[in-house]
Write a structure and sequence with these properties.
By secondary structure, this protein is mainly α. The chain is built from seven helices and no strands. It has two domains: about 10-105, Cyclin A, domain 1 (Orthogonal Bundle); about 110-135.
């Protein structure tokens, strides 16, 4: 139902697709969302995820570390650390890649749907309480 994500990108468009899938797939994981929400330095966290996703997508396309660093505007050491999984963002993005590779697809949970279920349950509770109060009157 979704668009095909190339695991071995050929060209800029394929790299963009893989990079986006890695970023969204990682960012929308419940554990990662919680880390981002509770983090004092959200922008740094998001930037690290973006760079790690971009680095991995370009590495899978066969780019050298120096070319990746140049395109992403980071040092080669930073790129190497993300690709080696020495950073938390690098580890998380690699897990997402492995999930895509292993399952052949990526399921992205939609947080808003989970919140909607919670709201529906709360609404039912309030309606029940309102009914009790009306019966007492």
């Amino acid at each position: 139902m979704g668009e095909e994500v190339p695991l071995k990108p050929v060209g800029k468009e394929d790299i963009r697709k893989l990079e986006l899938a890695l970023l969204l797939g990682t960012l929308l994981r419940p554990d990662v969302l919680e880390k981002v929400r509770s983090s004092e330095d959200r922008l740094t966290w998001l930037d690290s995820l973006l760079i790690a996703a971009g680095a991995l997508a370009r590495e899978r396309a066969g780019y050298s570390t120096s070319k990746i660093a140049e395109e992403l505007g980071r040092t080669e050491a930073t790129v190497r650390n993300h690709l080696a999984g020495k950073t938390e963002a690098g580890k998380l993005v690699k897990e997402t890649y492995d999930e895509i590779k292993g399952k052949g697809s990526l399921e992205i949970p939609i947080p808003a749907l989970e919140s909607q279920k919670e709201l529906e349950e709360r609404l039912k509770d309030y309606e029940a309480k309102l009914s009790e109060v009306r019966n007492k009157l």
